[in-house]
Amino acid sequence: MKSRQFFCFFIAVLAGSFFCGCGPDASILQKLAAQQSQIDSLRQKLDQIKPGLGEIMAVIQTHHAKLWFAGINENWKLADFEVKEIKEMVDMAENIETGRPETKFISMINPPLDTIASAIQKNNTVEFKHGFSLLTAACNNCHKDNNFEFNVITIPVNQPVTNQDFRSQP
Ligand code: HEC
């Protein structure tokens, strides 16, 4: 008897929510719609504040220059650090610049970065300089492949900043 009563109650609730359209389903849908519009506006805000590819490149450019002075001064710990900073920026570009078609080419700088990393491990300046030339060529090849051939990267002549000592510390 009890279960029959429960069954009738259940049917009544179900019918009620079905006919008046104001049952639990409707409120869940409303909540979902509100959450979706919140997600949309957050996504819009993220797009507005995330660094663009050009900004990421400007950071890579600084690390590229610092890497050179660290390497030629045989400050291998700093050189290792700069390689990792470039790799982090490359990862960042791959993660957040998915809307830019050029991003899929960015991994072309990984092989020269690996050559440099191995030279750093061996404390080998000749190999480091060779790797650095390959890296700089990869920067320019990607720029050429993506109609940014006017943006030419070179081996730096002067230190990028005057408030950092690139020499190896005792
Ligand atoms: C995807 C391949 C790719 C690789 C690899 C690459 N770049 Fe770029 N780079 C670009 C693109 C695309 C732009 C234009 C970005 C924009 O539209 O703002 C750019 C722009 C730049 C800029 C212009 C930013 C400015 O304000 O002057 C610099 C500097 C730069 N890259 C340096 C480098 C350096 C240094 C390397 C190598 C360590 C490198 N890039 C490797 C694609 C690449």
Description:
This protein is mostly helical and 170 residues long. The protein has two domains: 2-49; 53-145, Four Helix Bundle (Hemerythrin (Met), subunit A) (Up-down Bundle), CATH 1.20.120. 70% of the residues lie in helices and 0% in strands. It contains six helices and no strands. The protein starts with a helix and ends in a 25-residue tail after the last helix. Residues 52-54, 57-58, 60-61, 64, 102-103, 105-106, 108-109, 135, 138-139, 142-143, 146, 148, 151, 153 line the site of heme C (HEC).
Pick out its properties.
elongated; mainly alpha; binds heme C; Four Helix Bundle (Hemerythrin (Met), subunit A); about 0% strand; about 170 residues
Task: Give a brief outline of the structure.
The chain is an all-alpha fold. The chain has helices spanning 2-20, 24-49, 53-72, 76-96, 110-121, 125-145. The chain is elongated and about 85 Å long.
Proportion in β-strands: under 5%
Determine the N-to-C terminus distance.
Answer: 89 Å
At CATH level 3, the topology of the largest domain is Four Helix Bundle (Hemerythrin (Met), subunit A)
Helix content: over 70%
The total beta strand count reads 0
Tally of alpha and pi helices: 6
Name the structural class: mainly alpha
Helix-strand pattern: HHHHHH
Mean pLDDT: 90
Shape: elongated
Structurally, the number of domains stands at 2
CATH class of the largest domain: Mainly Alpha
Low-pLDDT stretches are: none
Q: What is the CA-atom radius of gyration, in angstroms?
A: 28 Å
For the sheet with most strands, the description reads: none
Named CATH architecture of the largest domain: Up-down Bundle
Bound heterogens, unique: heme C
